Amino acid sequence: MDELSNIALALAIGVLAALLPSVSVVLDRIRGKVSAPLPELTLERRLADLGELMRSSSVLLEEVQAEIQARISLADKAKRDAAEAESLAQMNDAQRIAVARLVRAELAVEVRKSSTRSFWQGFAANFVFFALGVIASIVTTMYLEK
């Protein structure tokens, strides 16, 4: 039912967007801003205006539908997350302990990989600075001997 009301809202917005220029002209005439009568429109011009309004309302409707689809997918994800949280909440103590151990084991493996990688990165950086120091010492010694 919520999806149907979103579609009805999108259609109403599209119709209002299509009618907005006409409402603006009528309100301006009521307020007296437009004193001259509107020029008579030919049938071709009115049909062209109608086509343009229909195209713009079609584009607006597509944009609104895309937004509705995005919100529906977000709501579906939230429902799945809520169902997963509910199933986790209904676990007994033994199941909770098993899941906690599994998560801890996975985290420990990732930390071990990260610390090994960090060690080798530090080793490489230190070696580069050591090599630069050796080069600087050699260049300095050669420069001072001249």
Summarize the structure in words:
With 146 residues, the chain is mainly alpha-helical. The protein folds into two domains: 1-90, no CATH class; 93-146. Helices cover 89% and strands 0% of the residues. The chain contains three helices and no strands. The model has no long low-confidence stretch (mean pLDDT 82).
Q: How much β-strand is present in the residues?
A: under 5%
What's the total helix number? Answer: 3
Structural class: mainly alpha
Low-confidence stretches: none
Q: For the CA atoms, what is the radius of gyration?
A: 35 Å
Task: Spell out the blueprint of helices and strands.
Layout: H1 2-31, H2 43-89, H3 93-145
Key attributes of the depicted protein:
single chain; 146 residues; mainly alpha; 2 domains; 3 helices; 89% helix; flat
State the gist of this model:
With 146 residues, the chain is mostly helical. The chain is 89% helix and 0% strand.
